[in-house]
Amino acid sequence: MTDQTTLVLGANTVISQGQCSISFSSSDPLQFGQQIGLLWLPLDTNRKAACSPAYLHEPKDWARLDHSNQPSTWQLDLPKLFNEQGVSFLQLIAYVYHEPSLNLPAVELGSIHLSIDNDAVQYDFKATERHVKAAIVLEIYQRNGQFKCRALGETSTQGLNSLEQRVQVSLDVRPPNVHALIQEAQSQQQGQQRNGAANELHRAPRQVQPGEIWTGTAFAIDAYHLLTCYHVIESAALIGIRQQGQADREAQVVLADIGSDTAIIKVAEPLPPCYLPLAQGCYDILGETITTLGYPLSGISSQLQVTQGCISALTGFGNDIRYLQFTAPIQPGSSGSPLLLPTGEVIGMVTASLSHEHAQNMNYAVKFQLLSALLTSAGISLTDSPSISTNAHTQYGTQSLLSSAPLTTPQLSKQSRGALWLVGCEG
User: Quick check: helix, strand or coil at residue 392?
Assistant: First the structure.
């Protein structure tokens, strides 16, 4: 009979095999998947998010559940995660689902029992203070070719907000009914697609009245060209761009693609020498901090507005690979705003938001690869574009906006604002 190890807070022990099971239960009346959630958060050597977490509502190929209705056991494939995806630490986090309409002070974590490595290891976590909303209860890591687990008890009465900032990833703490609504919406969307209806991100054709006016955002990529969304310029008889301190200019559509919701517009006179560089590399940006600049709600204010968030998913609505999801707040008029990395590169362009009372910050952007493809299709050379050069562009006197070191949000805003334009359209 195998000896059983009981962990105390801070203690660690060896996990005998990479393919292991971890069962969970609680003596509290709260139920997993009802009031309490669990997630596995993979971290890199700097303890930043290495890839998307696994949740009770969203297991992964490396973290599977025994069943979906009332799950009680995780099946982990640690070699797949640590050896193939470059993960250094894997943390198990318990949390109370965030539901604004509920009286949350009545819902808090109490105790969680873990049975690890086919019952070879036991750990009982108990919250030692009141009103605990989240807790890191276990950490798995690799040392000298062995997998080990460490008993933790780091708690928070504020939920996962502080942890999100630390690991630079947006964590999903919404209750299960929200995910049911989203899945229902996705199913309806797929049914519409089978019937030939428009995609959620591809709106129905704009119906406009003569003289009707609407606005969006565009950003300059060279002296004559700007990028914006297709739905911003759709059905416009007249397009103009405006920037504080500059003369208004009329713009013409060079090329527009309804499939990716992208468009290139062009002006006749050179723009001021401030253009945004498109990202050139394809790397892991999940959890990366991003900044958006744009002209939302221009009827209220025509001032450039800046918001910040992070990249929360690498696909869009319905796992559409053309888009990425981000958390920076946006409003009508933000369409066409660039998503800027701390280096000043454009990683995407704001295109849509999923509107639902429970689905907050589900915002989507066209990936930079599609923006580059649109420019190529229009015959605009990326090789000659100032967006990828760190030197002055002799033809236009371009001022490079690509930084070798990460910029603060105020620095990024100050450096990039000259490339942002309010787009005004008239039907």
Answer: coil
pLDDT at position 193 is 36
CA distance 278 to 276: 7
One-letter identity of residue 224: Y
Domains and CATH numbers, the chain: 5-171 (2.60.60.30), 174-427 (2.40.10.120)
Strands annotated E in 161-299:
213-220, 225-228, 238-242, 249-257, 262-267, 289-294
CA distances from 386 to 101, 292, 342, 383, 400 (A): 49, 21, 18, 8, 7
Rounded to the nearest 5 degrees, what angle is found at the Cα of 117, between the Cα atoms of 115 and 121? 50
Over 50: is that where the pLDDT of 394 sits?
no
H or E element at residue 162? helix 161-167
Burial 385-414 (b: 16+ CB within 10 A, else e): bbbbeeeebeebebebbbbeeebeeeebbe
- The mean pLDDT value of the chain amounts to 80
- Show the tokens assigned to 131: 């009103």
Name which of 255, 252, 264 is nearest 336 in CA terms.
264
Each residue's pLDDT tens digit, 154-186: 888 877 776 766 776 667 777 776 656 555 544
pTM value is: 0.53
The token pair that represents 332 in the structure block:
């009508």
Task: Count Cβ atoms within 10 A of the Cβ of residue 209 and give its class: 0-12 exposed, 13-18 middle, 19 or more buried.
Answer: exposed
Please state, for a pLDDT cut of 90, what percent of the chain lies above it: 36
Residues 6+ apart with CB under 8 A from 161: none
Task: Tell me the pairing of strands 305-313 and 323-326.
Answer: antiparallel
Which residues, 6 or more positions from 114, have their beta carbon under 8 angstroms from its beta carbon? Answer: 22, 23, 24, 92, 121, 122, 123, 124, 125, 137, 138
pLDDT of residue 391 exceeding 70: no
Assign 379 a pLDDT band (cuts: 50, 70, 90).
confident
